[in-house]
Amino acid sequence: GAGVAGLAAARAFLRDGVDELRVLELEDRPGGNSRGHAMAGMPCPLGAHYLPLPGPNAPEVAELLAELGLTTQRFGRTVYDERHLCHSPQERLFIDGEWVEGVLPPAAPGSSTLAQYRRFGAEVARAMTVLGFAMPTLRARWTPAHAALDAIPFAAWLDARGLVDPRLRWYLDYVCRDDYGAAADEVSAWAGLHYFGSRRGFHAPGDADEVAEPVLTWPEGNAWLTDRLASPLGDRLLAGRTVLRVRAERHGVEVLAFDERVGRLESWRADLVVLALPLFVAARIVESPSAALRATAALPHAPWLVANLQLDQPPVDRPGLPSAWDSVIFGGTALGYVDAGHQSLRPDRRATVLTSYEAWPVGSRAELLHSSPEDAARHVLAQLAPAHPDLPRRVQRIDLMRHGHGMAIPRPGVRTSAANGALAALRRERGRLRHAHADLAGYSVFEEAFTLGLGVARPPA
């Protein structure tokens, strides 16, 4: 697989002098959930669309960014190329008939909502100090207190502390769906706190530290990164290959694949094979899978619908904050949209592409995959209608991307497996078959996939 983890693994092997290397990829281009797209010559994402600035626990990601020219060192400080940092305004929320800055719903001074924001912020700060979190998670300690959080749903943890304000709970549902593909009643309390604890914490409106988290983004999303990871591979990257079987033998590994482009079976032999695949796929194609792999095959995955809407001009805006990179509608089940043209330096911004995102419930996967393109497009437009009733008149074309198993969901117990159970056992395997995928962390973000990919060649410090 040539997703982030597979590309990172290939990069590490090449740097260690392994030249006899091939990467087999199902799709016609690399990138996995970070593939890009284009409409009328305008680049846009098909999946992941930003990267937070790496913290001290992600030196491998920081090294990559430096090599790609995104950072420089000045007087001992890391300075980012501002062309690739998200331009302002970064985020906005449509609520009470207008656009406001940020995604956290506003709270009036002295209101119960503001009080609950501050209480939740204090809980997050306490968890960061007492327990600790890190991204990637392999750099975080795992204690019985972490395991206790992982054993219960995030919503139950919030209920037990009386954190029930509707605006706070909507926001926490939103961030969980954004990073994990499922709401607060489905992910673990560890996952809910990790979202904030591994980043910059949580800050109520008006707090001194209340600033938007800086992120790197590109019109094509994280395809900007994966295209550059794939470039050194050249003809070692073989697209359009469906891997049918992987069999470990005494003196090597045999891989049976089908070349979709010419309609022909291929048999590959190697000393070592890295399975940079979702674990449920790996469990199906590995002959005689290990007990650990069989145990992880039921890891839940969220289906996603990503829609790119080509517009002849931006839709008419409601009052409030002007067009931002990320626009979210309060109360909806969708995650809003990003403007692929927001990073453009073109003076003419008439035409653009909006990329909308929605995580669907696990039980609706069949509905998503079997819905007609017309029904899916109407669904997308209905989600955006409260903020943009004129949108149907602006749309020239809608391209749909349906991710049936878009990302792993860190339900209660999943992170414990990633720290001490079957997921951890797969991560430690160093035989002829090795696993590298964000599934091993129990949730799907670039930092996890990239670090795990490097680790199959050179275990991270």
Features:
461 residues; alpha+beta; 7-stranded mixed beta sheet; 3-stranded antiparallel beta sheet; 20 strands; 22% strand
Give the tally of β-strands.
Answer: 20
Residue runs with pLDDT of under 50 for 5 or more positions: none
How many helix segments? 16
How confident overall, as mean pLDDT?
94
In which order are the strands of the major sheet placed?
8-7-16-17-18-15-19
Strand % is: 15-25%
What is the CA-based Rg, rounded?
22 Å
Q: Tell me the span between the first and last alpha carbons.
A: 25 Å
Fraction of residues in H or I helices: 25-40%
Structural class: alpha+beta
How would you characterize the largest beta sheet? 7 strands, mixed
- Tertiary shape: globular
